[in-house]
Amino acid sequence: MNIQFSPDAAPRLVLSVQGLGKSFEMHHLGRVLPAFAGIDFDLHAGRFILLKGENGAGKSTLLRTLYRSCLPGQGHAFFHMTDGVIDLAQAADVDIALLRRREIGFITQFLQVRPRVAAEELVAEPLVLAGSGHGEALTEARRWLSSFGVKQSLWAAYPSTFSGGEQQKVNLARALILPPRLLFLDEPTASLDRGARLALVARLKELKAQGVAMIGVFHNPEDVAGLVDREFLLETAVPEPGQERRKPAFGEHHA
Ligand SMILES: Nc1ncnc2c1ncn2[C@@H]1O[C@H](COP(=O)(O)OP(=O)(O)OP(=O)(O)O)[C@@H](O)[C@H]1O
């Protein structure tokens, strides 16, 4: 889906996160572990937020909660669609499943491999589900596999046999073949070689220009330095004894 807006129009609000919090119940320890709390921010079309914080600060959990792989404990995440607003924190699973088909994407460093499905079919699937003809979708899938450096000899093979980096390239091709309006990225460059990293950054630049809103966690933030509009620093939610927990802070990016 290509979303265009005229350059002089104010970018549309895509996501408004208000007071979002998430805790894990550690039954075996008999206590509750806060992952993050009190998260507030707005994200507009074509904007890129870089999520930062120490190990364990809650970056992946925040992305998974916004994608609704986890349920939040408190707060709201209002997703602004073309025809209305839905609170991702409270939406029914069936609505979340529909949003994931076209509107909201999530790229992690892990491929969910499906047995006996060829790489090119896996990549073509979002286009087929969106109504493209199978032949046309396969042609496009091969183009994307090639752009991320997946060898032609692997296109018809099963990704379960691929190396970690090859699987990740299939993951990227599948996630980006049909761009969503809102994209979460959790360390997507983790196992990529330089060529694939450059291809990913070039694709993200295109998507940003088309109005896709993005939130990303990057082990090497310099990979996306030219794309970042704002940085969001997550402070570790679990205070050590004697330490106050501080609120998460927004920082403007200085290129
Ligand atoms: N399913 C879970 N059950 C219990 N605790 C969890 C679960 N998932 C995450 N946590 C805890 O929540 C906290 C935040 O984890 P998270 O993976 O979001 O951190 P992160 O900022 O992405 O870390 P890293 O930079 O190491 O990837 C950690 O203390 C982690 O142990």
UniProtKB/TrEMBL annotation:
<comment type="similarity">
    <text>Belongs to the ABC transporter superfamily.</text>
</comment>
<dbReference type="GO" id="GO:0005524">
    <property type="term" value="F:ATP binding"/>
</dbReference>
<dbReference type="Pfam" id="PF00005">
    <property type="entry name" value="ABC_tran"/>
</dbReference>
<dbReference type="InterPro" id="IPR003439">
    <property type="entry name" value="ABC_transporter-like_ATP-bd"/>
</dbReference>
<dbReference type="InterPro" id="IPR015854">
    <property type="entry name" value="ABC_transpr_LolD-like"/>
</dbReference>
<keyword id="KW-0067">ATP-binding</keyword>
<dbReference type="InterPro" id="IPR003593">
    <property type="entry name" value="AAA+_ATPase"/>
</dbReference>
<keyword id="KW-0547">Nucleotide-binding</keyword>
<feature type="domain" description="ABC transporter">
    <location>
        <begin position="15"/>
        <end position="255"/>
    </location>
</feature>
<dbReference type="InterPro" id="IPR027417">
    <property type="entry name" value="P-loop_NTPase"/>
</dbReference>
<protein>
    <submittedName>
        <fullName>ATP-binding cassette domain-containing protein</fullName>
    </submittedName>
</protein>
<dbReference type="InterPro" id="IPR017871">
    <property type="entry name" value="ABC_transporter-like_CS"/>
</dbReference>
